[in-house]
Design brief:
alpha+beta, Rossmann fold, D-amino Acid Aminotransferase, Chain A, domain 1, Dna Ligase, domain 1, 6-stranded antiparallel β-sheet, 5-stranded parallel β-sheet, 17 strands, 30% helix, 29% strand
Length: 328
C-alpha cells in the first residue's frame, strides 16, 4: 500500500524538486498529493492528485488542508514555502491529532532564522564566524571599508540584497529599504550546506555545495564538496538552533576564512536535486523518519555537478478545469 504524502506550494521550485525526488526513488511506494493557490502551478500536474487551497495566512487554509488530508488519508506533509512554516509549527499538534506527521522546527527557531539580526546574535553567542554587522550609528560615525552588503532584516530570498560600493549608494539604499542589515562584504566562494535533522534536532547528514553560478538567487551551476569544516559547523549550528527536518546554511569561504550568512529551516530552493543526486534524498529521509522506518545507510558523494536547464509542462482548460496535456 502506498504512503500518502502531501507537498505544499506546488508552484515553487523546491516543491517540484521534492516531487521528483520522491517519484524517482524506488524504496517506498509513495502517492503524492499537492496543493497550491494557483491552478496553473506546475507541480500540481506532476503529482498524483492536486487541490487548490487558500493562502497559508488565510484562516481558511488549515481547515481546507485538514479536509484534504482526511479525504486522501495523508500520512506526511512536506511544507515548502518559508511563509508556511510558522503556520505549520503552530498547528503541528492539530495535524498529529488527525494522524498527519510533519517535520517542522519550533516556532521560536523559525523566527530566529527569519530575523537576520537575531541570527547574527546567535552566531555571536556560539562563536560562529560571520561578517561584521553595522548599526546605523556606526555607519554614520565610523569609517567603513567598502564594499558593504545590504539586505532585508527579515525574510528569505535575494530581494533587495545588494553590494554597496560607496557612501552615496549606502545613504540612498538606507532610505529605500525597511529594516536593512548592513554588513561587511564577505569575499570568497559561495557555499550552501544542505542538511537534514532528526526529530530531536540531531543532524543526520549534510551535503555542502559550491554555488558556481546563480541567477535571481537560485543556483544554476553547482558542485558538491565533502568539506569536513563546513559539515562540522553545520552540525553545531542546526543542533544548537534546534532545527527539525530540512535546513540549508549559506556561507562564504576564502581559503581558511569562513563567514556564515544565513540559515533557512526548510528544503533548499535550488540545490535539492544536486543533494539527491549526490546521495542525500532529503524528502525520502523525512518520510522514512516520520513513519518510523529505518533510514538506512547514507553515502554522500563530492564532485557531483549540477547544470540546471528550463523545462515546461503543457496544460489545457476544459469546463473550468485544468488538465495536463499529453503531447505525444
Amino acid at each position: 500500500m502506498a504512503v500518502n504524502v502531501l507537498v505544499t506550494s506546488a508552484g515553487a521550485t523546491n516543491a517540484i524538486n521534492t516531487i521528483k525526488a520522491l517519484k524517482r526513488q524506488h524504496e517506498i511506494d509513495i502517492s503524492i498529493t499537492t496543493v497550491d493557490i494557483d491552478p496553473l502551478s506546475a507541480g500540481l500536474y506532476l503529482s498524483d492528485k492536486h487541490y487548490i487551497v487558500p493562502r497559508a495566512t488565510n484562516e481558511a487554509f488549515m481547515p481546507r488542508l485538514l479536509d484534504i488530508c482526511n479525504k486522501e488519508a495523508i500520512e506526511v506533509i512536506i511544507p515548502i514555502y518559508s511563509a508556511e512554516l510558522p503556520i505549520f509549527a503552530e498547528n503541528k499538534k492539530l495535524l498529529e491529532e488527525h494522524g498527519v506527521r510533519i517535520a517542522v522546527s519550533q516556532l521560536e527557531t523559525i523566527r530566529t532564522c527569519d530575523d537576520k539580526a537575531r541570527m547574527y546574535r546567535f552566531f555571536e553567542e556560539f562563536s560562529i564566524p560571520y561578517p561584521k554587522v553595522y548599526s546605523r550609528k556606526e555607519l554614520i560615525s565610523e569609517d567603513v571599508n567598502f564594499p558593504l552588503f545590504m539586505k532585508r532584516r527579515k525574510g528569505s530570498g535575494s530581494k533587495d540584497a545588494r553590494v554597496i560600493s560607496n557612501t552615496e549608494e549606502l545613504n540612498f539604499y538606507l532610505a529605500q529599504i525597511e529594516e536593512p542589515i548592513v554588513q561587511d562584504f564577505a569575499d570568497g566562494d559561495e557555499y550552501t550546506i544542505d542538511i537534514v535533522c532528526d526529530l530531536y534536532s540531531k543532524m543526520i547528514e549534510a551535503s555542502p555545495r559550491i554555488r558556481i553560478q546563480t541567477r535571481d538567487g537560485l543556483a544554476v551551476k553547482a558542485v558538491t564538496v565533502r568539506d569536513k569544516r563546513l559539515i562540522a559547523y553545520a552540525r553545531r549550528i542546526v543542533e544548537e538552533l534546534g532545527i527539525i527536518g530540512p535546513a540549508n546554511i549559506q556561507c562564504k569561504v576564502k581559503n581558511d576564512d569562513i563567514r556564515f550568512i544565513e540559515v533557512n529551516p526548510r528544503l533548499p530552493s535550488g540545490g535539492l536535486p544536486l543533494a539527491v543526486a549526490a546521495g542525500l534524498n532529503i524528502p525520502l529521509i523525512i518520510v522514512k523518519m516520520l513513519l518510523g522506518m529505518d533510514i538506512g545507510e547514507i553515502n554522500v558523494k563530492g564532485g557531483v555537478f549540477m547544470v540546471r536547464y528550463w523545462d515546461a509542462l503543457f496544460v489545457e482548460e476544459k469546463n473550468g478545469e485544468y488538465r495536463l496535456r499529453e503531447l505525444f
